[in-house]
Amino acid sequence: MGDDEMKPAPFEYFAARSAAEAAEALAAANGDGKIIAGGQSLMPMINVRLVKPTILIDINRIAGLDRIEKHGERLGIGATVRHRMTATDALVHRHIPILHDAMHHVAHLTVRNRGTFCGSVCHADPAAEMPMMTLLLNGMVTALSIRGERRIAASEFFVGSLMTALEQDEFVTSIEIDTLPPETGWGFEEFSRRHGDFALASVATTLRIIDGVARDVRFGMMGVGETPLRLPDIETLIEGQTISETLLQDVTEALKELLHPNTDIHASADYRRHLAGALARRALRDAWARATLRKDGANA
């Protein structure tokens, strides 16, 4: 590859002042336009010509997209909310502590200062934290086009590695996720070669303790499939049980059967399955311990 091919193909740039302007520009591009907010994944791909948009449509000047807001039992995250804002936001810390914990694993300082929550979800890397958290927390993606708004459940949004259910003329304006009841315990475990690198495997789980057993169990993973995963079979296995060494061994064995990760230059499929079991044990122990502390604190 010559030096000239390491630079972007020519493209136009448009700074939209409203969501409607952005939607019109994207429609006019006939599938050759790209939305840019943080650009931390998009620009490297453009620089090596993996993608060749004819126009970049900048949404950073659109008012109202840089907010995190609570709506009842849900939290809305706008399209230009940076990772740093998510990591330091009081609403996130108070109502979704597992997301607050996950943010410490996201890339590096410069990326967190520019990259966005919604952009990470749209990029749909199966080893990135925000897609997994969106799936774990019953996310609802709001997409806009000149045809109007469309709401897409996270369970239907991720269709493959770096692939989503977005149409070519749609862009995400916000993502809504669940807040967690105050007595919820959580566990987040991730393994990567270096801090901030993409995960070889990761586990996120939440649960409550009701009448001495686990209830409202959620269990998600990343880095072990073509998309982020929510594993209902594991959730059912844990639901109504206490977290014991026997149960943790059952979870480990179940994961070996459920997961079919790829082998690549970073890790073999067997190693990723081994990691999945080890991380699941840690995350579930943490979730149970935190749920116990929170339940005891509420009853004190």
TrEMBL record:
Pfam family of the protein (one): FAD_binding_5
Top-level division of the source organism's lineage: Bacteria
Signal sequence residues: none
GO molecular function annotations of the record: FAD binding; oxidoreductase activity
Keywords for this protein: FAD, Flavoprotein, Oxidoreductase, Plasmid
FAD-binding PCMH-type domain mapped to chain residues: 6-182
Classification via PANTHER family: XANTHINE DEHYDROGENASE SUBUNIT C-RELATED
Protein's UniProt name: Carbon monoxide dehydrogenase
Source species: Sinorhizobium americanum
